[in-house]
UniProtKB/TrEMBL annotation:
<feature type="repeat" description="TPR">
    <location>
        <begin position="77"/>
        <end position="110"/>
    </location>
</feature>
<keyword id="KW-0802">TPR repeat</keyword>
<protein>
    <submittedName>
        <fullName>Tetratricopeptide repeat protein</fullName>
    </submittedName>
</protein>
<dbReference type="Pfam" id="PF14559">
    <property type="entry name" value="TPR_19"/>
</dbReference>
<dbReference type="InterPro" id="IPR011990">
    <property type="entry name" value="TPR-like_helical_dom_sf"/>
</dbReference>
<dbReference type="InterPro" id="IPR019734">
    <property type="entry name" value="TPR_rpt"/>
</dbReference>
Length: 128
C-alpha cells in the first residue's frame, strides 16, 4: 500500500483525467496505481484506469477493469459499451455485441444504439 493521503488521491485522479484527455494513457495508468491501491472499491478510478488501458491498447487489463466495474455496477451502460469496444478490438465480436446491446438497452444513446446494430446512424466509433 502507498502512503497517499485522500487529497493526494484526488489530485492524482484529476491529473490522470487530464493525461487521458491529453492522449497520455500510460501516464494516466501510472497515476492511478496509488489511487486504486488505496481505494480498490472506487469504481470511478477503476473505470478511468480501464479507459486508460484501452487507449494504450492494453486490452486484457482494460477488459478486467471494465468487468470489475460491471460486477459492482451491472447497470453501468458506459462500462458495457466500453467493454464491448474492448472485446471488439480483441476480435471477439459476439461477446462485444452482447455488451453493446446491454449498453443500448440501459441507455439508448445514439452511439450505443448504433454499436448494438439497432440504429441506422454512424458506427459510434469514437472509442471508449
Amino acid at each position: 500500500m502507498s502512503a497517499s493521503t485522500p487529497e493526494t488521491n484526488v489530485i492524482q485522479y484529476r491529473a490522470a483525467e487530464q493525461l487521458l484527455a491529453a492522449r497520455d494513457p500510460m501516464g494516466a495508468v501510472k497515476l492511478l496505481e496509488n489511487v486504486v491501491a488505496d481505494h480498490p472499491e472506487n469504481t470511478a478510478a477503476r473505470l478511468l484506469r480501464a479507459r486508460a488501458f484501452f487507449h494504450s491498447a492494453q486490452l486484457r487489463p482494460a477488459e478486467l477493469e471494465f468487468r470489475l466495474v460491471l460486477d459492482r455496477e451491472p447497470d453501468n451502460a458506459y462500462a458495457h459499451f466500453a467493454l464491448g469496444r474492448t472485446l471488439q478490438r480483441a476480435d471477439r465480436p459476439s461477446e462485444a455485441t452482447r455488451h453493446f446491446r446491454l449498453a443500448a438497452a440501459l441507455d439508448p444513446r445514439p452511439d450505443f444504439v448504433a454499436a448494438a446494430g439497432f440504429g441506422s446512424g454512424g458506427t459510434g466509433a469514437d472509442g471508449a
